[in-house]
Amino acid sequence: MRATRFACVALMGVALAMVPRPALAQTAEQAQTIQQQIDQLRKEFGDRLAALEAQLAGIQGGQAGGGAPQAAATPAEATPAQAAPLPAVGQGGALANSKVFNPDMAVIGDFLGAAGRNEVNPNPALEMHESEASFQAVVDPYGRADFFVSFGEEGVELEEGFLTLTELPGKLLTRVGRMRAAFGKVNGLHNHVLPWTDRPLVINNLVGGEEGIDDAGISVARLIPAGTLFLEATGQVFRGDSGELFRSSKRGDLTYVGHLRAYHDISESTNVDLGVSYSSGHNPAGIVSDVDLGRFTTKLFGADMTLRWRPLTRAIYHQFVGRSEIIWSDRGQFGGRQRSMGYYASGDYQFARRWFVGGRYDRSERADDAALLDKGASAVLTYWPSEFSQVRGQYRHIDYADGPAANELLFQFQFSIGAHGAHPF
Amino acid sequence: MVIRTFKLILLLLLGVPVVASAQGKLNVVTTTEDLGAIAREVGGDKVAVTALAKGYQDPHFVDPKPSFILAVSRADVLIVVGRELELGWLPPLLSSSRNSTIQPGAKGYLDASANVRILEIPTGQITRAMGDVHPSGNPHYWLEPGNGRRIAQAIRDKLSENAPANAAFFAQRYADFDMRLAAAEKRWDATMAPYKGTKVVTYHRSWPNFMERFGLDVMGYVEPKPGIPPSPSHTLELIQDMKRQGVKLVVVEPYFDLKTPQAIANQVDGKVLVLAPSVGGTKEATDYIQLFEYDVNLLAGALKQITGK
Q: What is the third-level CATH fold of B191-307?
């Protein structure tokens, strides 16, 4: 602003200096003419200065259409056939802003509460369960980076942090870093996009619960040409450490995950998503005094199905999502291998713009003792004040194999600040 | 054994060669049907256009379906509305597309909002307490023929950049579109002339460019704030304002519920009008010019009834 003003004043000075000095002998008329020229110049420079200042203010305030610049842009309408591209006033505002290369940042708070009786696996009465901070941006022309840092009430954990390479030959989608594995559906989902306050029993019993298969590794996914069918094969290799599920004692104790996903639009409002998954790795069952004596492995097989219905003209008012996953676990441990199975089936229906109702049935054996079978059922009601917050209540009944039945009311508040994230699908 | 077979299948699938998509035509993917319609006007038979969101769905809330990933992965040119309209669904499609040609900033990417006239750019501090505000202005800018023309120019240039051999063809198609649009504009201006200055209410802030272009004055919204559903107190306030100012027309997009707008119209002895905000928003709005043809005629018909002019 100051530089512009200085330049204009300097120009004005030069212009004034160029005006011929009146000779003593000149008449009063000549002096008057010169005075008029000076006034004219002053007016022109004044107008120009004002216009520049207005434009500059527009750029700095990021207000392309607001005020003077917008008015200046309007005449392009006058002769449609010659409508020239308008100057991109206002976009410079964002570009000039030094923050433009900062990653998109957001924090999602997840507050949980529990009432009722659960003696086997009780949650705290009130808990700021998780605050998830995300940082996402393009790294360079070859890739983008996504970080999700999860702050619990006490500790901090890198939930995910990976580089996605977009420029590799063969249309391979490659990710490098720590990530949630592509095993089934629920394992890949962050807490805030789940349709429940908890995770299904089968996920807790067989796939490592909330942490799940979440490890450092490399993921390669490829689209398989199949006409209108979306077919994607994913192969992943991880270090081999995922909570209590997989534990690596040697460098070669890697975890492998394979996933095949098929998606098809049945109609414009209905689609089906099918997947099969496999995972294997070393488990901690054979570790005695920090030495892996048993060298036991766990193998997981999974099949998932999601059916979605969302009528496009009423997409913001009504939708239905039906989900189911069935998982088999084959776990080595002292005393022989345990072969367990579990599944869940759930349905969620949006019945008004802000309201969702859902139900889930759970049934799962335990990974370390297939003779123990837990069964459960939940009813869920969710209210969305806006796209950025959510209140949820869940009634949950669980028949534990080794303890008294649990009857609980779980409730949850979720709230998001910062960059607008993508809608979950 | 089973595991080995599974691994083998997976390896085989990962190794299947990718089928080349280009078949002479430029593969153009647009996020909305409006951009698709303009791309067809300019590109003619030298382009194959796929529009992702339908004209009758709310463009803010589109599911990022995997079938869209397939379309975007095959695109030579991707044209987006921009101004944060597709913020909730385009980024996952882009990052899963495995297509570097159409990433933002690349040769095949066009943000159609770059050179258009944008209204309602917020000034000063903005927060989400103001609803779902778009920090870089109202993204419904295509509802103004002048902007349609500017979008067409940008598309002409982008297509020419990606298929230089057809540049003259695109220039000629653009000139033809421009001429037809100019002729249609004269017609629309004449139709709307008697109603200049008439006040209307709209559901969402989808219509500032349209209403300004045709001289109508939007005095209020059914939504209390952008993206926030109607509340009883706001609705009552709106009814009072409409009665005071003699406003009788409520314009609604096809993807909103008509219950509240209808209740408002009943209270003010007025009318609810469902206009098409996009090509494909109604079956009559088959292309960009027909979209305005439909909206202008419907609007003029309703205003004639209301104003008696």
A: Rossmann fold (3.40.50)
Q: Which helix (H) or strand (E) holds A214?
A: strand A214-223
Looking at residue A49, its pLDDT comes to 63
**Which residue from B11, B121, B256 is facing A64, i.e. has the nearest CB?**
B121
Q: Does B109 touch chain A (CB under 8 A)?
A: no
Other Cβ atoms within 10 Å of B249 Cβ, number: 24
Residue of A nearest to B4 (CA): A278
Put simply, whether B224 touches A (Cβ < 8 Å) is: no
Give the SS3 label for residue B74: coil
The helix (run of H) or strand (run of E) holding residue B211 is helix B208-213
What does the block give as tokens for A410? 């779980």
Within an 8 Å CB–CB cutoff, is residue A422 touching chain B?
A: yes
CB contact under 8 A, A223 and B18: yes
Fold of B26-186: Rossmann fold (3.40.50)
What's the rounded Cα separation, in Å, for the pair A88 and A96? Answer: 13
CA distance readout (Å), A131 to A104, A149, A232, B47: 16, 8, 32, 47
C-alpha distance from residue B214 to each of A72, A181, B188, B197 (Å): 19, 54, 8, 9
Give the confidence band of A17 by pLDDT, cuts at 50, 70, 90. Answer: very low
Q: Which residues pair with A418 in a beta bridge?
A: A106
* Domain residue extents for chain A: 2-74+87-95, 112-124+173-418
Q: Which of A353, A358, A192, A385 is nearest to B58 (CA)?
A: A353
Among chain A residues, the shortest Cα distance to B84 is held by A420
User: Tell me, what DSSP letter sits at residue A242?
Assistant: B
**What digits encode the pLDDT tens for the residues B66-105?**
999 999 999 999 999 999 999 999 999 999 999 999 999 8
- The pTM (predicted TM-score) of the whole model is 0.83
Give all strands (DSSP E) within B41-174, no chain letters.
47-51, 77-80, 109-111
- Residue A260: which of B13, B185, B254 has the nearest Cβ? B13
Q: What is the ipTM of this complex?
A: 0.89
Fold classified for A112-124+173-418: Porin (2.40.160)
Stated as kind and residue range, the H or E segment containing A417 is strand A406-418
pLDDT tens digits, residue range A356-400?
Answer: 999 999 999 999 999 999 999 999 999 999 989 999 999 999 999
pLDDT at A12 over 50: no
Question: A83 and chain B: CB distance < 8 Å anywhere?
Answer: yes
Mean pLDDT, rounded, of chain B? 93
The amino acid that residue A394 corresponds to is Q
Measured between beta carbons, the chain B residues lying within 8 angstroms of A265 are 65, 67
Tell me, what's the pLDDT at A142?
87
Residues of chain A with C-beta less than 8 angstroms from the C-beta of B58: 315-316
Q: Which residues contact A316 (CB under 8 A, 6 or more apart)?
A: A353, B58, B61, B255, B256
Measured distance CA(A282)–CA(B237) in Å, rounded: 65
Distance CA B300, CA A402 (A): 73
DSSP reduced 3-state for A256: strand
Q: Are B27 and B101 in contact (CB under 8 A)?
A: no
Chain A contact set for B254 (CB, 8 A):
313
Alpha helices, H only, A178-320: 201-206
**CATH 3.40.50.1980 domain residues, chain B:** 26-186, 191-307
Are residues A83 and B229, on separate chains, in Cβ contact within 8 Å? Answer: no
Residue numbers in B near A83 (CB within 8 A)? 146, 149-150, 153
**Can you tell me the mean pLDDT for A398-418?**
97
Q: At A157, which amino acid appears?
A: E
Residues of B in contact with A90 (CB under 8 A): 118, 121, 136-137
| Cβ neighbours for A216, distance < 8 A, ≥ 6 positions apart | A177, A178, A238, A239, A241
